[in-house]
Amino acid sequence: MPNSSTDRSARIAAERGPAGRAIQGWRWAPAWILAYVALWPAPGYAEAILVLGALVAIAKLVSSRFRGGVSLLSGEAWALTSVLFFAYWVPQLVSTFDSIDPGRALREAAVDLRYLPFLWLAAAAVANERGRRVTFGGLATIIAVWTVDALIQAGTGTSPLFFGIDSIKQAISGHAMCSVSQVAVVDRLSGVFGPCNLKLGIVLASLSPFALYAAAKRAHALGWLLAAAAVGVVVMLAGSRASWITYLLVLVLSGWRLLGWKKLLGVFAAGAILLGVLGVVSSDVRQRLERTTHVFAVSEEGVDRALSGRTRIWGAALCMVREHPFNGVGARGFREAFPACDPQSDQQAEWGEGPAFHAHQIVLEILSETGFFGLVMWLAGAALAWRAWRFADAQARERARPAMLALVVTVFPLNTHLAFYSTFWGGLTLLLAALYAGSLLAVRSTPETTGTE
């Protein structure tokens, strides 16, 4: 009969790092992460949470060092989180040297250093079993609440969550979240983000793995199907076609392991029927479907219209790559460089007046704004993330799977994207990278090590 004290010692030893110190995480870290995500519809408050979280993380990490060791993260998770950040940030720094406004670019690069300690905090949030349960479960709950809110808006015309946020904003400042003109031109379901910040669809698509995995864990295939249907309706009504592609990838990568290919094909058939029905009852969805059909046009103009002017933007991005091959035009310098590279400067753009703000495609954004140096750095980060996954055991892969899937679909290159060097989308992508690194390279928790105060 095995000795219970020996088993207990073995379990505790399994949780210790190379130097024999327990890796315990930090019990309050998940609260910071969930507060940051929940406040995305109010960008100023979300940014404040990020900055405060970064400062708290620095203080916590310093105090841990002084107590004689790192108890918040395993050495491997610490290293991978830092490497993924620097694969993102170093190209930004190098791109500033000959950018259009080097001073401003250097300031932006310096400010973005705030992400690093916050990413350590995010990795620490999922460093043990309790932290992963709270963090991933909390993200699933946020997605569920936003989905239900959007479905209510689809039925009634009003998002209860955004109505509450807007009412608070008016009571504090006397001004609404969105102007009358912004409300008038909205062409999709806006949900909690509101009609002047149309990010609901793409955010739900990228974060949906957390909701789908939580539903599958609770109710197996039925839970996955119900969650997939609810989120899918909102993504169709709220999202751009890019978010449709992102969500399709989520369904493929999460559904085949649970349902098998035959049943998953049935899900896709039902989804196609649902999309057709929404195309009939929703003028906004119908317009996006009609615009998509222009991709089959023979003329270049028809294709550009189908892609909402993307071919023109991509042509300008390639011009920037030719002109600045090593380090690009500077992170977030696309809009200033666009007029000189616009291949159709004498024609009205599909998106209206003004220059394009970014390349709308991850590879072209990296190449045009940070050059081939930036692309090599991003690829190096991706290779290290893949290497960590490849050499992880089955248990580690399973606990990191929701974060891995969310990160993969967010950076999937055969799609169009938001700007990865913007505050919002850059922060979301880096957060997913930290959750992936922290959960993949975490240690298995025991009752004795459920988190420090």
Automatic annotation (TrEMBL):
Pfam families: Wzy_C. The chain crosses the membrane at residues 33-58, 70-89, 109-127, 134-152, 198-216, 221-238, 264-282, 371-389, 424-443. It is a multi-pass membrane protein. GO terms for molecular function: ligase activity. One of its GO terms (cellular component) is membrane. This is O-antigen ligase family protein. It comes from Novilysobacter ciconiae. It comes from the Bacteria. InterPro entries: O-antigen_ligase-rel_domated, WaaL-like. It is found in: Membrane. Keywords: Ligase, Membrane, Transmembrane, Transmembrane helix. Residues 227-379 form the O-antigen ligase-related domain.
